[in-house]
Amino acid sequence: MSNLLIILRGLARTPLFTATAILSLAFGIGANTAIFSILDQILLRTLPIKNPNEIVFLYHPGPTQGRYSSDENGGPSFSYPMFRELQRLQTPFTGVAGTRGDSVSLSYKNQALSGKAHMVSGNYFDLLGVQPAMGRLLTKEDDSSDGSHPVAVLSHSYWTNQFGADTSMLNQPLIVNGFPLTIIGVAQKNFTSEKLGTTPDIFLPVGLKRELTPDFKGFDDRKDYWITLIARIKPGITPAQADAAINTVYRGQLEIDEKLLSTPSDTFLQRFRAKKINLKPGEHGRGGFREESEKPLFLLLGMTLLVLLIACANVANLLLARSAARVKEVAVRLALGASRGQIVRQLLLESLIIALGGAVLGLFVAHWTQQGILSALPADSGGANIFAATIDVRIMFYCLGLSLGTVFVFGLFPALNSTRPDLAPALKDQAGQTTSSGGTNFLRKALVTAQIAVSLLLLISAGLFAKTLVNLNHIDLGIKVDHLMTFSVNPRLNKYSNERSLNLYNQLTEKLSTIPGVTMVTAARVPAISGSNSSQNISVEGYSSQGDDDEDSSFNETGAGYFRTLGIPLVNGREFSAQDTASSAKVAVVNETFAKHFFGRQNPIGRRFDQGKSKNPKYEFEIIGLVKDSKYSSMKDAPPRVFYIPYAQSRRQNTLSFYVRTGLDPKLISNSIRQTLASLDPNLPIQEMKTMEAQIDENLFAERILSSLTAGFAGLATLLAAIGLYGVLSFNVARRTREIGIRMALGATTGNVRGLVMREAGLMLAIGMICGIAAAIFLGKLMESF
Predict the structure, then answer these.
(1) Which end of the chain is more exposed for a tag (fewer CB within 10 A), N or C?
(2) 591-631 pLDDT per residue, tens
(3) Whole-angstrom Cα distance, residue 19 to residue 91?
(4) How far apart are CA 728 and CA 569, in angstroms?
């Protein structure tokens, strides 16, 4: 205890040294801890379920015919009949459950909301080992496709955030897509779903899908692929054994589906017969969010480790300078009988106190950094759904481990070096001189040179990411995004018929056009540059297919004036008008990529095609317009071939995204838009209202936050390196005070002395910059993949 008090008093007598050392470590440890916390929550933690290592997801990639949809990119959807057969016949699993995410319209006590639902089979919660926080969860008794169990389970986050954890909600009615359900329970805390980055509001029996989804016929259709399968491997069964067993069952199901194929080509049939089920480990959840986040998070963690190394180098330099200044003190203690081990332990304890101080302050820095990142996340992003700005026990141990590591790696050498003085010279009075060996001075310069190299490496990396962001911001989208507001509505979820939905769309378009400041209004089925996409096989008159996917095309269903409203130039022909209705001839507009693929240099106007594949296509759609290419789903992807048809000519009227162009700030009309829709139907919620500029910002969010964090870490590293350079120069000037005095006495000028110091600094800068640029060239090649 007495040694601890002596050390604390010693640190208090040198406040500048203590504060600089602790702050350097705090920033390095804090930045590193914040990024590791995010990485831990997204990449390392397993699902909060029973024995997550036993969970697998079932994928069966390969060609299909019919309707395919999924709630994840490249998803693993099965048909419902195949799901039930696999569930009945399988042997390697304790059970197979089905799940599918969907958007829904919710109403509780006459308050209309848009929400997210997870439709699951009755054994879903039991298979995962999830417990109720209140009431009960769905069971096999609720698993009926006749809609006879109209019940719902709330997610814990929805129950607490939307309803304040009101326990009286149990057994209360909840209206979902106009269908009355009863709330029977709340899922356990911290469980969101098996899909990483998704937090549904409610869980519903999959058997209610027919009641909740208009025109749904997927319970009996083996060519309608829409449900995802999850299973738990039996104890004692290896993944390889499970794979072989489930594929034996799958082979029989595939043979049944093969008989339903419509005129498949030989190549298609060969690929179809080669399909098999792949089992993917499920302890971390499914979906692409984890894979998409892995590289950027490890890159950021690597950058924060470099910042921490710079901070540790600063502390090491400070400790070396402090030990050099205390050589006489250490020599006196050794001469009086103190052992070298005692002094080393005391100096290491001093380093430990500094490191612990840096760790404590670093936890605050980490929390502030986390909050800043969380506040920058879009509300509906995957990261916002699973990332929390909290410091748990795991992160505290990580922070403590970093602190202890800095003590051992960067505190041991100064402690050992300061306890090896030559006693005779050290005990003499060396006024005006700070003792330091040549080796120690070389190490201090080497540390600063390394700091300069690393900080330059981070600065160049930040510049590369900033350049990427600038390049993306200057991409020609083919769309004018300024003064454009967008939102979506789905009246079909509120039990609207197709005719009634179309009538609502027409009325809404007309009323929105009368809002002061609005210049144009249109709508589209697939929202522009939002990550959504739709594609379809088509039959083009006079075109000979070159392969199985050669006649695929993306498509969109749009309203009158769509291209004029979004600023997409018309090259030839005309765009859709209000006269293009269900009773008029079917028409289409195509983009340049579509025209070039199917018609080469020929004029596409007047050419015909048909949706789908058949032996005798009717070629119902006549191309009446050609438009410039524009970005379809993502800013990074090249425009695909796209055909557009009027949504008024579609048999099914589902979700529609509206676009309102204004002559003023589009945010000023958001309330007017809500009032306009409410005047037509107060129970119909508006979904995802935002400006198109905000939509583009969300599309670039990953690049934007990566660039911002990289720039922040690079700036911090540069500041720490500057502190380190200043410390080395000031120490060397102090060490050479007598030498400088002699030089000036012999005729050296102030300029000569300054030049001496600047040459020393310039050499460290030059070597550091050369090393930093060389490392940046190598890293630049690596970062091109981002």
Answers:
(1) N
(2) 999 999 999 889 999 999 988 777 778 889 999 999 999 99
(3) 65
(4) 62
